[in-house]
Every structure is written in C-alpha cells, then in structure tokens.
Amino acid sequence: MNIKKGIVYVFIANLINLIINLVTAFFLPKYLAIETYANIKLFNLYITYLGILHLGFADGMYLRFGGKKLENINKEDAIEEFKTFKIFQLIVNIVMVIISIISKNTILLFCSLIILPINVSNYIRNLYSAIGEFKKYSRYTNINTLMILAINLILLFIIKSDNYYLYIIFYVIAYFIYWIFVELEVKKMFGKSNSIFCFNKKYLFDDIKSGFFLMMGNFCNVIFTSFDRLIIKELIGLIEFAYYSFAVSIETLMNVFITPVSTIMYNYFCQNQSKEQIIKIKKYVMLFSSFIIIVIFPAKFIIEHWITKYVSSICVLFFLIASQYIAIIIKVIHINLYKSKKQQNKYFGIMMCIIILSIILNFLAYFINKNIVSIAIATFITNIIWFIIGEIDFSTYHLKIKDYLFLGINILIYIICGIKFNSILGCILYCVLLGISLLIFERKEIKEVIIKCYGYLKNYIKNNRKVIN
Fold first, then answer.
1. Smaller CB count within 10 Å for the chain: N or C?
2. Over the range 195-227, which residues count as b (16 or more CB within 10 Å of their CB) and which as e?
3. Which residues contact residue 46 at a Cβ distance below 8 angstroms, ignoring those fewer than 6 apart?
4. Annotated domain spans of the chain
C-alpha cells in the first residue's frame, strides 16, 4: 500500500476516533463529579503503563517485520510467535493480579485484569503497522473506542451513574470483548493453529533482546507524557489532577491528526530514507501542524460556555497544545528515524535524558509556583529541548533558518492568542497572523502545497467523470 492510501485509511479511522473521543472528552467532565472524573482518568493513566509488561517482545516483532508484506511472512512461525507472546503475558497477568490483591489497590487490580487483552490487541495493531496493512489497522482501531463510547452514554444518560467503579468495571469488560475480536481476526489472517499450547523460548528471548530498548524508549515517552499528572496528583491534589487531566484529554484529540502520519512513516522510512524526501516531509508536517492546532479554539469555546467548572484548565491546555505542536515533528520524524535506522539503544538513551530533565523541571516548577500552569510550562520547555536534541542528532535533515523562525514565532503567537483573548477573537487573530507568517516565511512551500492539492482534486474529478460515463 502506498503512503497516500495508508495515510487516508489511518486518518479516517482516527477521524472516527476523534468524533467518539469528543463525546467522551466533553460529556464525562460535564456530567460527572470532579472526583469521579479524576478517578476514571487515573485508571486510564495506569493503563498507559501496561505496555512495559511485555518487556519489548511486541517491539522486537515490530522491528523485525518493519517494511515487509503479509504474503512474505511465514504464517506458521507468526502464529507460533503470537501464541508464545500470549502465554508470556498470561503469566505476567497472573503475577500482577496477585501483587495488586496483596497491595489492596483496587484500581491497580482492575488494570492488572486487562494486561493480556490490551497487550495482545496492541501486538496485532503493531504488526499491521509494521507490514503496511493500514486498512486492517484502521478497522480495528475504533472497535474498543466505540464500545467505550456506548458504555459512557449508557451509564451517563440511562443508568445515570456517578460511581467510577461501575465505569471501570464496564471498561474492563469492553477490553475483553475487544480481545475476542482480535483473536477472530488473527485466525482469519494466519489460519487455525493445530496446537492450543505453543511456547517457543527462541521468540521470547530474541524479540525481547531486539525490542527491549525500543520498548524502554517508548515507555520513557509514556512516562514523560504522564509524569506531570503524577506530580499533580501526589503533590497538588486530586481536584487539580482532574483539571489537568481534562486538558490532557483535549490535547490527546490531536492524535487524530498525528497518528495517521506517524504510523505510516515508520513503514515508509524502512523503505525510503532520501534526504530530500525526509526534509520535505518534515516541512509539510510543520505546516500541517500550524493549521490543525486551530481546532483547540472551538474546544476553548465549549469550555467557556458549557463546561465552565473546567475554565481554569484553559491556560494549561494551550501550553500543552503548544508542546504537541513541537512534539508532532519529534513523533513523526525523529522517533521513526531512530526505529527505521535500528537505533533503538540510542533512542532509549535520549529518552532517559528527557525523563531526567522532565523530572527536574517538573519539581522545579512545583517548588517555584505550586500550580498546574507551572507544570504545563515545564512540559512545554522539555519538549523544546527534546526537539533541539533530535535536530542535532539528525543534522542531515535540517530545515532552513526561516523554517525554525516560522515555528518559533508561530508558537508564541498561538500561546498569546489562546490565553489572552476569548475563543472567537483568539481564533481570528491566530488565523490572520498565521497567514501573514506563512506569506513571510513559507510562501514557496504553501504555493507548492496548493498546486499539489489542486492536481489531486483535478485528477479525482476526472476519474469520477470516467466512472459516471
């Protein structure tokens, strides 16, 4: 599948995801008590840490299959590897359940119950991503999200529950149902296996050995994007954690635009590492990002007029989105280059440095000014430093000075327009100033994009006319 089709498939899947998550992101905080919402977000936060429990097995598979095609994979070996992974995760699952029972941590127990369903499901999605099966990747991206949406709507508007335990119990059930869907798909993809119990220690050790540092790098990324919330929960309070988590939930809606490109780029970079192409993609990603962050202004409007109890999260939201603006290039270009060049050890080392930096800056922000805005600013600064490190590391793919000026000025304009003005005026000002900065710094690139879009549209209309005739 070519890069354009892949992006379209994953984009459509994530667009559906966006619509679904919009309901969750705005309806839950609107109708639930702040404490209930905070505990649900805490459960979701713990879930993000479950990926470390496969110890790099899934990442080893991901690296090995990167750039290959489904028809070139030995199906018997693939199913044997998959079953080995499941047995390994079942053992981990049992151990974690025992630990959570001993520690008497109820939320941790619920998370422990779904280690196997979540990691098995992510394993298959990683496989689809690695081998370029983006249509199938897209199909299975939203099944669980749709179930979560249905659960939220039923509990909010039919049962009218404000009990976070009830929400979490139904989420756990949804993850198990999703696992069943995944198992049926695997059987369809690789065929039925002759043996029920199948464990090959070669896959266990080889995949963990090759994927461990990539997994640790990815886990450090998860820690980096969640450490600020842990600091707030432990040192500032559960209510502030709810406000900050609400801002993060709006921020993650940006993934509908980031994930399609980021997912495709690993497979693409495995096959193509042309300097000119990567620089061009990086520039397009930067320009694309400057437009997509506009969607946060309507979100601000909704907060100002509909979810007023979370107005104090607006300032946090715009610093987090400014961080995402920078992080998009890191996720799409830098991280995928580390993976495609098989530099997972280096990626892990850099992520360890970023984690240490994040911890230092977050604690410093807390001691200087004990509020959630200072923590968001610390996250923003860490992302800037991370971006600079990536640009130094991949100096071959540098942008021009004017591009970096555009990026810096645009971020500053965005933060000022988002924080200092109301949603409507801020949006208008940002759009006007963005247009001016594009004309000053990126006139040639914008002209090129317009010409390409016009060409695609012209061909699309031409092809449709042929079909009609």
1. C
2. eeebeeeebbebbbebbbbbbbbbbbbbbbbbb
3. 107, 108, 111
4. 1-199, 212-469
